[in-house]
UniProtKB/TrEMBL annotation:
Subunit-level organization: Interacts with microtubules.
Native organism: Neogobius melanostomus (round goby)
Highest taxon above the source species: Eukaryota
Chain segments annotated as transmembrane: 32-53
Compartments, as annotated in UniProt: Cytoplasm, Cytoskeleton
Keyword field: Cytoplasm, Cytoskeleton, Membrane, Repeat, TPR repeat, Transmembrane, Transmembrane helix
Single GO cellular component term: mitotic spindle pole
InterPro entries (alphabetical): RMD1-3_a_helical_rpt, TPR-like_helical_dom_sf
Family: Belongs to the RMDN family.
Protein name as catalogued: Regulator of microtubule dynamics protein 1
Gene Ontology MF terms in the entry: microtubule binding
Transmembrane among keywords: yes
Amino acid sequence: SCGVTAGKYISHTVVSKCFNVNKNSSILPFKISIGLLFGRAAILIGIPTLSLLGHEVYQRVQRSSVVLALEREELLEQADYLYSSAETEKLYQLLLQHKDRDDAEFLWRLARATRDMSRRPDTTADKKKQLVYESNECAKKALEKDEKCFAAHKWFAICLSDIGDYEGIKVKLGNSYIIRDHLQRAIELNPKDATSMHILGIWCFSFAELPWYQRKVAAVIFASPPESSYEEALDYFLKAEAVDPNFYSKNLLMLGTTYLRMNDKEKAKMWLTKAKDYRPLTLEDQEVQHLFMTFKAQLVQLGMGTKPRYHNIKH
């Protein structure tokens, strides 16, 4: 439906200004019939010409906002395509051109792309540090623009965690509750986001095997230091897998690793085999493949080979 109502007129003044129609033009008294042919019988509707012109006036008034909306959606679609294609550099350059947009959807994507740039093997140490802090600022701005954007919460948590790598164990532990709370908020806003569940599983796993000296530091910072268990971590990894099976090679790896910690070798072997045979499409997938070298002795004990047999697994 184009929203045109038969018999609805607008003033000649409006039409003449918008379309340069002469006051005495013979266009005014005419009516037309439009045949709507879409695989059904033609429906002939008598519509005053000015009704169509009125609709066009409306379209022209709305055009600028429509163009902006289309431009926004096209840019976001292009950004998501580049991300899914692992075109890290192109994605970063695209979003960097729009860094001043007052839009949470652009800002969290820029935070993600900036972080990905920091993780490239050809990034120098100084540049990496700069990008880590920039990604955190982008995520923070996204959150300020839209508190109900689940992805802003997720990427703020991820980028804040990265900051701890440069500011020491006290800061990292001090931010731990903030990170957990934002991940929980992301899941609350989008219960279908497997990535947030996976990262919260990582949070639980990390505190389940926190070294004794870091526990002492945590006890100084908090009256009740953060703690968790392998069972809690496993629950989040399994929930993530249930929501989106095979979405991430690292989730498969963490499932296998967690079962190893819990001494369930049969399930550990099943998940580690899936992770090993996951075709690497991103930089992180490649990192997961390299991690298998550190598991080599355990893989042999489980009766697993170390050579991957790639399957057509959903990415």
